[in-house]
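Action item from last meeting closed. Structure (638 res):
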């Protein structure tokens, strides 16, 4: 500063402000100093005002209104000068008060009436109310005569943390990367690892599907049953690796992120395929949550029936309605559904994964114990249930198709794979971590599926129940059966959330985009919860998610058919979401030449899976129609 002439007269666009500081900054451990930036020609109108932020979870820091009614959004990113120091100046002295910890881009979307006014009525004045300076006309205006003096002044401003950079609104809205608590897309930094992703996968895969595998193996027999399990597991793992590479586009490592399965399809395929994907994905997510409601209530009923059989004998008429337990399950889901997003569910998925291991292990152990019983002999065959003995020829065909649908449902998790991958931290690359997590998840679940299905078939033979832990092939020890069913219920509580959170996110994001200024949709209200702290409630989220849980529960009460519903959902979701779209996106991404060797065998795989899915769907529809003919909704058996 000593090189600048003392008799220098600043131009009119630079004015010295000799006011005392408006605030006396006293830093604490929780205090942050922010550097606010805004586009040129869009000066804010809250000079000297105190503002309060409404916090958001959708990528930008928050929003507020000025006294004139204008709304502003803040997009946060790391300070590019982490050592920049803030000085508080006054007529008497200047003192350093701290370092810049965050840069904030200020974005205001003008109303049409604002744009109609002449620019001259809105001078671009950037005011520093700390008692230093006021800039006008040009973002880099300084009180200097020469290029050298200008560079010195700019450097001083940078060091003091008072330098105002200007960027286009679209750049500032996206945010910046750097050392901060945000990822490269401006969203909260992801913390997921291979362990948490594997837990999410196991939670999503090992669900109600495992309970029907003994019945499925009984329909197919010792040859086709295990072969079908192995084939579905290999196909699921292979297509999940293709899908993992599509999370970022166009490059699987450095491309732009996609947040949902639909985003991935839109980026890679677009057009009508994107709309068909959305229809398939969300229809099956809804169907899966209905299926989990049915299964959880069956397991809760099984606990009460197990205790009844233990007290009154195995022949006692221990009939219990599913409906009260569906209401209990729905009540729990209403509370858990208020968890804002997928990233907050890691703890729930880990608990649910532990529960899935527990009840699967109990089922395998009980099956082994039953097989080892003295004098135990159940009729099993290489081809499954016998025509003319167990079923008719027509029933054999339909049951075989339905069994394929049950196995397909057991491996249905591709519809939430992208949401799971979006929880992973960016280093190492998400696609590589997701491939490892998929391998761990599919291997683990296949091992349990083989044990549950094959040992269940060995224990019950061709008379295997539709649900081998609730169909009462086992009666004792009753306390162990109770514990297994408790584990099933807890697991499905978590699995329900894994599948419904993408639905919640889709609806809420679309509503926010459609009505961004609607306070009912965007406002968050802090509620102090003992032993937790502040929890932010959004009334739209509260009402909409509660309504969704109630609706799925009512549908589950109307159609409480376990095996048929499971087979229907498996058949409907396996081909489009697990096979077709991943293969088509890989072909597009890799730019495979038509009729090349790789293109040909991928198409053959796709068509073969389509045929299997159609057959499985037909079998499940036939079973569902047969059950509906004899079913009376909301009527309890006597």
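Sequence:
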């Amino acid at each position: 500063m000593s090189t600048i002439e003392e008799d220098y007269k600043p131009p009119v666009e630079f004015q010295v402000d000799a006011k005392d500081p408006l605030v006396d900054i006293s830093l604490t451990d929780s205090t942050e100093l922010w550097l606010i930036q805004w586009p040129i020609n869009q000066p804010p109108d809250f000079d000297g005002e105190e503002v309060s932020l409404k916090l958001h979870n959708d990528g930008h820091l928050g929003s507020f209104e000025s006294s004139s009614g204008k709304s502003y959004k803040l997009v946060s990113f790391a300070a590019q000068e982490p050592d920049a120091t803030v000085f508080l100046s006054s007529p008497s002295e200047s003192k350093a008060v701290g370092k810049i910890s965050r840069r904030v881009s200020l974005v205001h979307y003008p109303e049409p009436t604002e744009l109609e006014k002449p620019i001259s009525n809105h001078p671009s004045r950037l005011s520093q109310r700390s008692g230093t300076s006021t800039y006008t006309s040009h973002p880099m205006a300084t009180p200097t005569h020469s290029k050298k003096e200008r560079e010195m002044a700019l450097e001083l401003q940078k060091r003091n943390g008072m330098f105002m950079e200007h960027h286009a609104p679209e750049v500032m809205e996206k945010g910046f990367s750097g050392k901060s608590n945000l990822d490269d897309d401006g969203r909260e930094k992801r913390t997921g690892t291979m362990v948490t992703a594997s837990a999410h996968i196991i939670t999503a895969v090992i669900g109600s599907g495992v309970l029907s595998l003994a019945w499925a193996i009984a329909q197919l027999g010792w040859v086709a049953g295990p072969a079908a399990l192995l084939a579905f597991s290999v196909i699921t793992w292979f297509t999940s690796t293709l899908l993992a590479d599509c999370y970022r586009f166009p490059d699987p490592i450095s491309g732009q992120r996609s947040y949902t399965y639909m985003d991935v399809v839109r980026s890679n395929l677009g057009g009508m395929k994107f709309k068909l994907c959305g229809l398939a994905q969300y229809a099956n997510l809804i169907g899966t949550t209905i299926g989990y409601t049915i299964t959880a209530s069956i397991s809760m009923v099984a606990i009460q029936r197990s205790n009844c059989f233990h007290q009154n004998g195995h022949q006692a008429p221990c009939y219990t309605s599913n409906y009260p337990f569906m209401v209990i399950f729905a009540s729990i889901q209403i509370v858990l559904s208020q968890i804002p997003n997928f990233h907050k569910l890691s703890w729930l998925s880990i608990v649910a994964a532990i529960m899935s291991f527990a009840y699967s292990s109990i089922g395998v152990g009980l099956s082994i114990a039953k097989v080892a019983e003295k004098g135990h002999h159940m009729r099993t065959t290489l081809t499954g249930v016998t025509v003319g003995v167990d079923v008719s020829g027509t029933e054999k065909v339909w049951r075989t198709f339905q069994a394929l649908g049950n196995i397909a449902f057991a491996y249905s998790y591709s519809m939430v794979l992208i949401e799971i991958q979006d929880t992973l931290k960016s280093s190492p690359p998400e696609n590589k971590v997701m491939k490892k997590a998929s391998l761990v998840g599919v291997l683990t679940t296949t091992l349990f599926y083989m044990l549950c299905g094959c040992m269940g078939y060995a224990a019950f033979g061709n008379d295997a129940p539709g649900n081998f832990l609730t169909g009462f092939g086992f009666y004792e020890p009753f306390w162990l059966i109770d514990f297994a069913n408790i584990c099933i219920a807890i697991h499905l509580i978590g699995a329900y959330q894994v599948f419904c959170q993408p639905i919640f996110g889709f609806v809420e994001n679309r509503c926010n985009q459609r009505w961004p200024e609607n306070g009912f949709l965007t406002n968050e209200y802090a509620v102090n919860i003992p032993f937790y702290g502040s929890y932010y409630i959004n009334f739209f989220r509260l009402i909409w998610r509660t309504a969704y849980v109630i609706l799925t529960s009512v549908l589950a009460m109307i159609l409480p058919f376990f095996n048929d519903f499971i087979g229907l959902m498996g058949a409907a979701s396996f081909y489009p979401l697990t096979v077709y779209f991943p293969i088509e996106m890989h072909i597009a991404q890799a730019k495979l030449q038509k009729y090349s060797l790789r293109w040909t065998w991928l198409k053959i795989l796709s068509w073969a899976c389509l045929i299997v899915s159609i057959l499985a769907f037909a079998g499940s529809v036939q079973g569902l129609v047969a059950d509906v003919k004899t079913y009376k909704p909301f009527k309890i058996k006597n």
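Note appended to the action item: Residues 14-174 form one domain.
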